[in-house]
Amino acid sequence: MKKVGIGIVIGIIIIFIFQYYQKEKQNKTEIIENTTLIQKQIKNVGKLVVTEGYFSEVITYKDAKQYLGNLISFDKKALVVVNAEATISYDLSQISYQIDEQNKIVKITNIPSPELKIYPDIEYYDIEMSQFNPFTATDHNLINKKVNHIIKQKIEKSSLVTNAENRLITELSKILILTNSMGWILEYNQSVIQKEEDFKIPPKG
Predict the structure, then answer these.
(1) Residue 116's closest CA among 95, 141, 90, 150?
(2) d(Cα 88, Cα 117) in Å, to the nearest integer?
(3) Each residue's pLDDT tens digit, 8-40
(4) How far apart are CA 195 and CA 157, in angstroms?
(5) Helix axes 160-181, 2-45, angle to 10 degrees
(6) CA distance 176 to 178
(7) 57-63 long-range contacts, Cβ below 8 Å, gap at least 24?
(8) Which of 18, 65, 159, 205 could hold 133 in an S-S bridge, CB 3.0 to 4.6 Å?
């Protein structure tokens, strides 16, 4: 009778051990599956997000070469009409992250800075110049620099930057939704991300 009791106890212990290892195996499998799913989602998010804007500007370019104490002047000028396409892009394939499987934490360690590109279409009108002071490549370079500077100023005052940031956050929120649905924690800049507004957008590069 005593041996039967010992056998029952041993049997119960074996059952508990078997259930424990089965549970551990199931938990481990679930973590691996979740990790794979998170990595897949981040890879899906990793694309180029581009926001486009269009800007117009009219400027007057003037230059003068003067001689004999400004008694003689050879002037040139032109009316410059600019239609520019501007893009702000985020290459989300550059997102860096770490996955802490034990604590179920996804840590985003880097969000790429935006890239601003300007594609100006420049047309010249009312060109006036002297054969002693003609338009040269230097003038065109100066005009291009001035155009880019003016368009950048207009972009900063426009909604293009905000629109680009909103599109970035929309993409990043897909990771947040996924981690929340699986009971994982999402972190960025050593802070827990609980809502879209918690993402801190990097400054323009």
Answers:
(1) 90
(2) 7
(3) 555 556 555 545 454 555 556 667 778 888 888
(4) 27
(5) 170
(6) 5
(7) 57/81, 57/82, 57/84, 57/147, 57/150, 57/151, 57/154, 58/82, 59/143, 59/146, 59/147, 59/150, 61/139, 61/142, 61/143, 61/146, 63/133, 63/139
(8) 65
**Tally of residues, the chain:** 205
Q: Could you tell me if 121 and 56 are in contact, meaning their C-beta atoms sit under 8 angstroms apart?
A: no
Supply 202's token pair. 């990097």
Residue 124 and residue 87 in contact, taking contact as beta carbons nearer than 8 Å: no
129-173: pLDDT as tens digits: 777 788 889 999 999 999 999 999 999 999 999 999 999 999 999
Per the DSSP assignment, residues forming a β-bridge with 119 are 85
Residue carrying the six token digits 């604590």: 103
Geometric angle at alpha carbon 53, from 81 and 202, rounded to 5°: 125
DSSP-assigned letters across all residues of the chain: -HHHHHHHHHHHHHHHHHHHHHHHHHHHHHHHHHHHHHHHHHHHH-SEEEEEEEEEEEEEEEEEEEETTTTEEEEEEEEEEEEEEEEEEEEGGG-EEEEETTTTEEEEEE-PPPEEEEEEEEEEEEEE-BTTB---HHHHHHHHHHHHHHHHHHHHHSSHHHHHHHHHHHHHHHHHHHHHHTT-EEEETTEE--SGGGPPPPPP-
pTM: 0.71
